[in-house]
Design brief:
With 408 residues, the chain is an alpha/beta fold. Helix content is 43%, strand content 14%. Helix 3 crosses helix 12, helix 5 packs across helix 11 and helix 14 crosses helix 15. The mean pLDDT is 93.
């Protein structure tokens, strides 16, 4: 039978992102392309104990659960945010999702009609762009600098296009790693208030920072979330999304959306149509882990940040080798990525093809732009490869650069 897919589905299947993701499943392949944490830092022992406790205590773990998510886990999030993120929210204002990607997808389904204008950071997360394209949104990029998106350009795009939604990640933007200043956060929030634009704030990387390991309150005091600045959701201007995928394990597929109760109710209704609920078993397992005496959440975050800081420093040293001469980048203060500008004449997608032949991949910058751009940019994930893999993979890309430039 000849199938007749929508034009949006055909675009999805032809995306080079699908092509890239088919390679890392091969043994010995080194990927700097994906948004993956380090498997060697997964809390396996306490996870095994948590799984045993959940499965032996109550068969309801294998039953359908609340479509809005396991209540004790939402209560844990509420308490954690109050204590460490200066965020006040009711349990009824939290929806548990299958990762942060689903949170953004559900919002797009219920808030964005085909042809609606949506603003995004430029560059931005490939996953965000995929969601909006599948929804048929008119995606308009907003330029930024080291402090976040530029308010003057944001205002220009608002006045020119009258958007209803803005997608941002103020804490270590994917892919640039930019950490928005407190002044920029307030300015963007106020501008969106004046023009009635809903902000989707992705804080998936907010716990991964390398600035002040001895002072856990440093981030929240210096860089409060837009959600907190909006009166902890009282203003209704911000939907706060995130995930345990980058901090515990992506296989648990547990994320969240927090915001105005009306938004959460409509998103929960859409979720029931999509999958009824995210895994009740996984949510119970995660809650058991977080409450276990065998696991300390805060110490685990410190461990991640210490190791990821070391891997970033190693990548930084490897980028000083002769093969990488002429590149430009700014070391991020957190997150998972290094955003690199290649020397003139080096094309990211052509370099990727050469690198894949050697057994290593990265994300070409073209996938991070709503329009044209990114041909001279690459995104390198420094959290997933172990130190030995990181060293080998960067050397393989160096070889690809040598071959590419020699042919040119």
């Amino acid at each position: 039978m000849r199938y007749s897919f929508t034009s949006r589905a055909e675009w999805m299947m032809s995306s080079s992102l699908k092509y890239i993701k088919s390679y890392p499943r091969q043994e010995s392949f080194i990927s700097f392309a994906e948004e993956l944490p380090a498997e060697d830092l997964f809390p396996l022992t306490p996870l095994k104990s948590a799984a045993a406790a959940v499965l032996s205590s109550n068969p309801l773990a294998l039953q359908y659960g609340d479509p809005e998510g396991y209540t004790p886990l939402r209560e844990w999030l509420r308490a954690e945010w109050r204590l460490h993120k200066d965020v006040e929210v009711k349990v009824s204002e939290i929806l548990l999702t299958t990762g942060s990607q689903q949170a953004m997808d559900l919002l797009a389904r219920v808030y964005v009609d085909p042809g609606d204008t949506v603003l995004v950071e430029n560059p931005t997360s490939p996953g965000c762009l995929q969601i909006l394209r599948m929804q048929g949104a008119d995606i308009i990029p907003v330029e930024g600098n080291e402090d976040g998106i530029r308010v003057e350009h944001l205002l220009q795009q608002i006045e020119a296009h009258h958007p209803k939604l803005l997608f941002v990640a103020p804490n270590f933007t994917n892919p640039t790693g930019v950490l928005w200043s407190i002044e920029r956060r307030n300015e963007v929030l106020e501008l969106c208030r004046r023009h009635n634009i809903l902000i989707v704030e992705d804080d998936s990387y907010g716990d991964l920072h390398f600035m002040s390991a001895k002072d856990p309150s440093f981030m929240v005091e210096s860089y409060p979330s837009l959600f907190a600045l909006d009166g902890h959701g009282v203003g209704g201007q911000v939907l706060y999304v995130g995930s345990f995928s980058k901090t515990v394990a992506p296989g648990l597929r547990t994320g969240w959306a927090a915001g105005n109760r009306q938004l959460i109710e409509v998103m929960a209704a859409a979720k029931q149509l999509a999958d009824w609920q995210s895994s009740n078993l996984n949510q119970r397992l995660l809650h058991q882990l977080l409450e276990s005496t065998l696991f300390d959440w805060n110490k685990h975050i410190v461990l991640l940040n210490r190791e990821y800081s070391i891997r970033l420093k190693l990548m930084n040293e490897l980028l000083k080798r002769p093969a990488w001469k002429g590149i430009h980048y700014t070391l991020p203060a957190g997150g998972m990525f290094l955003w690199v500008q290649l020397p003139a004449g080096l094309h990211s997608e052509s370099l990727l093809k050469c690198s894949i032949g050697k057994g290593v991949s990265f994300l070409p910058g073209t996938l991070c732009y709503a329009g044209e751009g990114g041909m001279d940019r690459i995104r390198l994930n420094f959290t997933h490869p172990g130190r030995d893999e990181l060293w080998l993979g960067m050397n393989l890309i160096s070889e690809a650069i040598h071959e590419f430039t020699a042919r040119s």
